[in-house]
Write a structure and sequence with these properties.
- The chain is mostly helical and 243 residues long.
- It contains seven helices and no strands.
- Pfam families: Snf7.
- It is found in: Cytoplasm, Cytosol; Late endosome membrane.
Length: 243
C-alpha cells in the first residue's frame, strides 16, 4: 500500500485511534510525508516531460505519429504536474494552519500552567500582612533617614553666644591694636634752629633723616593696616564656620 493511500485511508498508530484522533505531531508528520512523496513525484514527471519532448524532437517530421504520441504524453504529464502543484499548495497551507494551531494550543497550555502556579504562590499571601509590612518598611526608612541627617549635621557647640556681641568685641580689639600701632610710630622731631629768612637748601643729612623717618612711619601704618585686614578675614571665616 502506497503512502498516500495509507494517509487517506486513515492509517495511524493504535494510540491515536484509541484517543479518537491523531495528535498534532502525528498529523504534521503525515503531512510532511505526503509533501515529500509529492515532491518526488514532481521530479519524476519533470524528467518524463523532458524525455517525451526529446522524443518528439527526435522524430519530428520523419515520424509524425511517434512525435504526436510523445507530445500527448508530455501534455498528460504536465497536467499531472499542475495537479500536484495545487495539491502541494493545499497541503502546505493545511500544515501551516495546523502548526499555528498547535503553537497556540501550547501557548495557552503554558499560560494556564503559569496562572495555576501564580495562584498557588498567592494562596499563602495576606494583603493585610503585606500592607503592614510595607508600612513597617516605610517607618524604618524614615528612622534611618533621620539618623543619617543627625549624623551628617555638624556640631553646633557655642551657638548660644550672640554673634553681634562677638563682632563688636572683635572690632574693639582691632581698634586697640590699630591705636597701639599708631602710638608706636615716632614722628620726626621739630628742628631747634630757626629757619633761614630766605629759602635755601636743606642740609643733605637732615633731609635724609626726615625721609627715613617718614618712610618708617608709612611702612608701619601699612603693616598695621594689612594685619587688621588679615584679622578681619580670619574673624569672618570664624564667624561663617560658627554659623
Amino acid at each position: 500500500m502506497s503512502k498516500i493511500s495509507k494517509f487517506f485511508k486513515g492509517g495511524g498508530s493504535a494510540a491515536s485511534k484509541g484517543r479518537g484522533g491523531p495528535s498534532p505531531q502525528e498529523a504534521l508528520a503525515r503531512l510532511r510525508e505526503t509533501e515529500e512523496m509529492l515532491s518526488k513525484k514532481q521530479e519524476y514527471l519533470e524528467t518524463r516531460i523532458e524525455r517525451e519532448l526529446a522524443v518528439a524532437r527526435q522524430h519530428g517530421t520523419k515520424n509524425k505519429r511517434a512525435a504526436l504520441q510523445a507530445l500527448k504524453r508530455k501534455k498528460r504529464y504536465e497536467k499531472q504536474l499542475n495537479q500536484i502543484d495545487g495539491t502541494l499548495s493545499t497541503i502546505e497551507f493545511q500544515r501551516e494552519a495546523l502548526e499555528n494551531s498547535h503553537t497556540n494550543t501550547e501557548v495557552l497550555k503554558n499560560m494556564g500552567y503559569a496562572a495555576r502556579a501564580m495562584k498557588k504562590v498567592h494562596e499563602n499571601m495576606d494583603l493585610n500582612k503585606i500592607d503592614d509590612l510595607m508600612q513597617d518598611i516605610t517607618e524604618q526608612q524614615d528612622v534611618a533617614q533621620e539618623i543619617s541627617d543627625a549624623i551628617s549635621n555638624r556640631a553646633t557647640f557655642g551657638d548660644e553666644f550672640d554673634e553681634d556681641e562677638l563682632m563688636a568685641e572683635l572690632e574693639e580689639l582691632e581698634q586697640e591694636e590699630l591705636n597701639k600701632g599708631m602710638r608706636d610710630v615716632r614722628l620726626p622731631s621739630v628742628p631747634s634752629t630757626s629757619l633761614p629768612s630766605r629759602p635755601g637748601k636743606m642740609p643733605a643729612c637732615r633731609f635724609t633723616h626726615i625721609s627715613y623717618e617718614l618712610h618708617s612711619c608709612i611702612t608701619h601704618v601699612q603693616l598695621a593696616t594689612q594685619k587688621r585686614a588679615e584679622d578681619e578675614d580670619e574673624m569672618k571665616k570664624l564667624a561663617a564656620w560658627a554659623s
